[in-house]
Write a structure and sequence with these properties.
The complex is a heterotetramer. Chain B is mostly helical. Chain B is 75% helix and 0% strand. Chain B contains 22 helices and no strands. Chain C is mainly alpha-helical. Chain C is globular and about 30 Å long. Chain C has a single domain, classed as Non-ribosomal Peptide Synthetase Peptidyl Carrier Protein, Chain A (Orthogonal Bundle). Chain C starts with a helix and ends with a helix. Chain D is an alpha/beta fold. Chain D is built from 15 helices and 5 strands. A 5-stranded parallel β-sheet of chain D has the order 2-1-3-4-5, sandwiched between helices. The mean pLDDT of chain D is 91. The chains are: A alpha+beta, B mainly alpha, C mainly alpha, D alpha/beta. The interface between B and C is medium-sized, with 24 and 19 residues.
């Protein structure tokens, strides 16, 4: 009888050793809450709501006349990068399958602000309240949503630049 | 290191050259070394698992061997042994063997169960009791399901006295870790495999070239067809809300083709590679889609798994004392006709439950297993009806009827397999009926199918490949194609091989396979 | 032997058990029939066929079956 | 047994030949589409006797004209530039050139310092595929590969371009065994003009520090030039877009001062070089056209002559003959492009 018990104990021991070597691997299915699925960051100017990767054509109509437009062959391949300056902000587009899509919005002065109330000159705390924490005394904060990366740059605690950048898979 | 990688080809080349350069007696040692290197590349951390399984099974085999040897010696040494004494000694040795077997089974099946099914169990408990136990996410060592079952088959055979245990641990380790069969099987039997695994092999050009052709045919199926269909299958399966109706039918069809090409292709590579080293592995497929009913299908698809489950689960269960009691009880209660069926159907259900679970740790595999079982039992019940139908209607034994049966079996299996892809039972049952709705059909035929990164040319290639599968299948009926190819004169023979290599390299869906004219100016 | 033949024809009347010697090899009997035979043998003739005896040699013909039954009975 | 070996050898050779031919057929030819792909391979036909070597990205192969430098100052030069050529690729192209000749001056355009890690597979192919196989090319491939690329796909381009089988055009057949000469010692000519107008202000970046890998390879360029007694000149071409931030410029100026190198930012010398962004650029300020490039080359030729002591080699008869041929090809292409500009209003091909 004693021999049998010792055999069982030995068995369990071996089983335990191998299992603890069972490092947590990554190849089994990971729960798929894909990134932060907060609503997409958008920029509003007058009646137009500018979302990243949206079609540029209707937006250009809604935004009305622009102060200056510039067009250059896209450094990242075919099609043209276009930049429309509306004074308070610049709208940037890129070409995909023949259509112009929004690739970014850059706030240029403090006459415009984001729907969440952040503009050039806002304080770091205001940004924390509007979008959430970021690294202490970092010089920039980025917030990601499905199609858009919101980049806010600081100089000694004051916002100096606000940029919406389209997340285009490389 | 997956089969479809240059790394594997290089590994193969080096091993092949050494294999035939070194003196013959080192050949099996070299295979063992190669297998360990292959495993170390694939999943270095988990070498311990396969080592534990190999050693524990070898050790158990040795213990049983010693116990039986002691029994035989005892019987031989005492000439005037009485009948009872002989029976007692045999019984005692049998009990000892059984105890060692059970320990070995618990250890190895325990490892498999814990690694593969812990999260599945946790998930089920969470959903049943609303608890929120975190997943442990144990990593699954490569080929654990295959080599564990293969080793358990060995130890059960040894405990049944079917053949002698292998006393040399290194030789046994080779049986467990032989690299071609690690990834997808086949699940070999020790007595068959050991004949060619350990013997010395001359450089037989004929056998090696046939092995090479078989492997190339496997690469063709895998790289040109299976890998090409992956984007369509995942595209449709992962967006059930976007792609319903006609798309589901396309998914059912393409997944079955992809699974066939991928699985049989992988096995062709395995058997081909093993043959190049002179080792003969068991066939795992016998033209499965030429079978006329489900039971026949499961005798020709994944044969080694089917026979494994039959020999080590189905028969022992249906013949066990407990099951015999059940059959007595059922015969008494439900009368002979019905009573006769209960034990057989009970063991069938049990086997299919085990098969389903073995395939993967999620409910859709369990349901897939049970559905297969249901279809088998129904077709078993309808047997008499079929017999009558055959006599009455002359059409039923013509070629046309056979083709219809093959067609019916193909689609039946295809629809069952779709559970694998949606990986979610309620979703599958919600999606399949949408085929009969009008959704998706029109959109599909006006460019809808081109949304998955596949162009028209890809579908043409798949269509042509299916025709080639059919032709080769028909040819295979008479004699293995490799032998037929060998009989042809030199020029056509090498022409076919030459075309096959070019087709794989050019039409294979590998590398950064996107449209080259676009690649310079495509949009990032 | 007659009792065995009775059981066999009871399960598969369409099979000629007298002189067919490749019941398994030609896949005439499938796993269902084998199990039915074994359960019948157990209930009718009180013979328990262990799993390791289920091999083609024992089941290929009625004679082989009968030899197995006799072997098991006197064990 | 011998017969069998002979049979096998024949089959293997036959297979290798067809695969090589297939590879030649499927590899992009860069003759009438994506012409920049031809640049890195054209060097080998013109190797030797180049006193000045330009290395960099599109800002060198569109903004400097070796023929102009020869015509005005007798300076022999070659531009080893390819689209989005990264700093380490410039270094390896320098190392590759040194296997054939040793120039007196090396000119490196610093725009590539804005990329500190491999960018994308397509540009890598354009730069590296044309290079002849050597230890240098292998190092260049390893340093440039993005994670989806493999060394094998560079050794056997068939593994990479096999999917082009149904995009084959007449170009692939015509240029199977010959290549189209498109550049003038590495300079790609464009004669049309597109005024730049007002370029929007640059977009602020969160971080301007230049990546470690760029400094590492700039050091290697500098050390190689020191060892070989070559004068290294850093330049920044006068393009308006995409922006070359002052913060980047400051770091390069500090580096140049630290190692006593010359650094010329042509953007600040617009008036001295006479560049007019309404007539001298073909894409609104990114790259100069022929007239812009010739203006820039005229200024830079004087600099090379006076500051770097590059000699005038027009007296050498053999060289003069060689360059006369190049001038003729230069004028032929100029006429062809002006003709197309007059007739069709745009320049859509180089010849």
């Amino acid at each position: 009888m004693r021999k049998k018990i010792s055999a069982v104990i030995a068995l369990v021991l071996v089983l335990a050793i191998t299992l603890c070597a069972c490092g947590s691997g990554s190849n089994s299915v990971t729960p798929n809450n894909s990134g932060s699925n907060t609503k997409d960051f958008v920029f509003k100017s007058g009646s137009a709501t500018i979302a990243m990767k949206a079609e540029a054509e209707p937006l250009l109509k809604a935004l009305g006349a622009y102060k200056n437009s510039y067009e250059a062959p896209s450094c990242a391949f075919d099609g043209m990068d276009k930049i429309y300056s509306y004074g308070g902000f610049d709208l940037m587009t890129y070409t995909q399958n023949g259509k112009d899509l929004v690739s970014g919005v850059v706030l240029r002065d403090d006459t415009v602000e984001t729907p969440e109330g952040i503009a050039i000159g806002s304080s770091a705390d205001a940004v924390k309240k509007a979008y959430g924490e970021f690294e202490k005394d970092a010089t920039s904060a980025t917030y990601k949503s499905e199609n858009c990366k919101l980049l806010i740059i600081f100089e000694n605690g004051v916002v100096t630049s606000v940029q919406y950048i389209a997340l285009v898979e490389k | 290191m997956s089969f479809v990688s240059l790394g594997f080809l290089l590994f193969l080349l080096i091993l092949f050259v050494l294999y035939y350069a070194l003196p013959r007696r080192f050949q099996w040692v070299l295979l063992l070394a190669g297998s360990l290197v292959f495993y170390a590349f694939a999943s270095p951390k988990y070498l311990i698992y396969i080592a534990v399984t190999a050693l524990s099974t070898w050790f158990a085999g040795k213990l049983i061997h010693d116990a039986y040897a002691a029994r035989d010696a005892y019987i031989k040494d005492t000439p005037d042994i009485t009948k009872e004494d002989k029976k007692a000694c045999k019984e005692q040795a049998k009990k000892k063997g059984r105890r060692i077997l059970v320990c070995c089974l618990i250890l190895n099946l325990g490892i498999l169960a814990v690694c593969k099914y812990t999260d599945f169990a946790i998930g089920t408990i969470n959903s049943l009791f609303g608890t929120d136990i975190a997943f442990l996410r144990f990593a699954l060592p490569m080929g654990i399901s295959f080599y564990t079952f293969q080793s358990m088959g060995y130890i059960i055979d040894v405990s049944r006295g079917k053949y002698q245990a292998e006393l040399n641990p290194a030789k046994f380790a080779l049986f467990v870790t032989f690299f071609p069969q690690l990834v997808q099987g086949p699940i070999s039997r020790f007595d068959q495999l050991s004949q060619t695994l350990y013997s010395e092999h001359e450089f037989e050009a004929q056998k090696i070239t046939q092995g090479a052709w078989r492997a190339m045919w496997g690469f063709f199926k895998k790289m040109v067809v299976a890998d090409r269909l992956v984007p369509v299958v995942t595209g449709i399966a992962c967006n059930p809300d976007k792609y319903a109706g006609g798309y589901v039918l396309a998914l059912v069809f393409f997944y079955t083709i992809q699974l066939y090409a991928d699985f049989t292709g992988g096995i062709d590579i395995t058997i081909g590679v093993a043959k190049m080293f002179g080792v003969d592995l068991a066939e795992n497929f016998d033209r499965p889609f030429f079978s006329k009913n489900i039971t026949e299908f499961w005798r020709r698809w994944h044969i080694t798994m089917g026979t494994w489950f039959k020999d080590y689960i189905f028969y022992p269960v249906s013949v066990s004392k407990w099951m015999l009691k059940v059959s007595k009880w059922s015969r008494a209660k439900l009368g002979p006709q019905l009573g006769k069926r209960v034990p057989v159907y009970l063991s069938t259900i049990l086997v299919w439950l085990a098969t389903g679970i073995w395939h993967g740790a999620s409910w859709n595999f369990v349901v897939w297993g049970l559905l297969n079982c249901l279809v088998i039992i129904i077709s078993q019940e309808l047997e008499p009806l079929y017999a009558k139908f055959h006599e009455k209607c002359a059409f039923s034994n013509t070629k046309g009827w056979d083709v219809f049966q093959m067609f019916r079996t193909f689609w039946l299996m295809a629809f069952l397999r779709v559970l694998d892809v949606y990986r979610n039972v309620p979703l599958t049952f919600r999606m399949v009926p949408t085929i009969f709705s009008s959704k998706g059909w029109s959109e599909m035929f006006s460019g809808g199918m081109l949304k998955f990164g596949l162009e028209e040319r890809d579908y043409i290639i798949v269509a042509v490949a299916i025709v080639i599968f059919l032709i080769v299948g028909i040819l295979q009926g008479k004699k293995p194609v490799a032998e037929q190819l060998a009989e042809k004169p030199l020029v056509p023979r090498y022409l076919i091989v030459w075309v096959l290599i070019i087709v794989i390299l050019v039409f294979g869906a590998y590398g950064i396979g996107f449209d080259a004219t676009q690649f310079i100016y495509n949009q990032f | 032997m007659e009792e065995l033949m009775e059981i066999l024809t009871g399960i598969r009347p369409d099979v000629d058990f007298e002189n067919c010697t490749t019941l398994i090899d030609d896949k005439i009997l499938d796993s269902f029939d084998i199990i039915s035979i074994i359960t019948e043998l157990n209930s009718e003739m009180d013979v328990t066929v262990p799993a390791d005896q289920i091999i083609p040699e024992n089941f290929n013909s009625a004679k082989a079956l009968w030899a197995m039954v006799e072997k098991l009975q006197d064990e | 047994m011998k017969k069998r070996i002979v049979k096998i050898v024949i089959c293997v050779v036959l297979l290798a030949a067809t695969l090589f031919l297939l590879q030649k057929l499927l590899v992009p030819k860069y003759a009438t589409t994506n012409e920049e792909g031809i640049l890195s391979s054209e060097y080998y036909a013109n190797a030797g006797n180049n006193d000045v070597l330009f290395i960099g990205d599109c800002e060198v192969y569109t903004n400097f004209s070796p023929v102009k430098l020869w015509r005005d100052y007798g300076i022999t030069s070659y531009i080893r530039g390819t689209p989005q050529q990264l700093t380490w690729q410039s270094y390896y192209l320098l190392e590759d050139t040194l296997r054939y000749e040793t120039p007196k001056v090396v000119v490196f355009n610093v725009l590539a310092m804005k990329y500190a890690e491999p960018q994308n597979e397509a540009y890598n192919r354009l730069t590296l595929d044309g290079m002849k196989w050597s230890r240098t090319k292998l190092d260049a491939v390893k340093a440039s590969m993005t994670d989806e690329e493999t060394v094998a796909s560079y050794i056997f381009p068939l593994l990479r371009f096999h999917s082009r089988w149904n995009e084959l055009s007449s170009e692939d057949i015509n240029y199977l065994f010959r290549t189209e000469k498109l550049s003038h010692n590495g300079y790609l000519m464009r004669v049309d003009a597109k005024p730049a107008g007002q370029v929007p202000d640059p977009v602020p970046l969160p971080d301007y520090t230049i990546g470690h890998k760029c400094w590492e390879y700039l050091d290697k360029i500098r050390e190689t030039c020191e060892q070989k007694g070559i004068k290294l000149v850093l330049i920044k071409a006068p393009s308006l877009y995409p922006a070359w931030y002052d913060q980047w410029d400051k770091q390069v100026v500090e580096y140049a001062a630290k190692y006593g190198l010359e650094y010329i930012n042509f953007y600040t010398l617009a008036d001295e070089t006479g560049i007019d962004y309404n007539t001298d650029t073909y894409d609104a300020g990114l790259h100069l056209n022929l007239s812009g490039a010739e203006k820039l080359s005229a200024w830079f030729g004087k600099y090379l002559k006076e500051k770097c002591g590059v000699e005038d080699r027009r007296s050498d008869a053999a060289l003069a003959a060689e360059w006369a041929e190049r001038e003729e090809f230069y004028e032929f292409m100029k006429e062809a492009q002006y003709k197309q500009l007059r007739e069709e209003g745009a320049v859509t091909r180089y010849k």
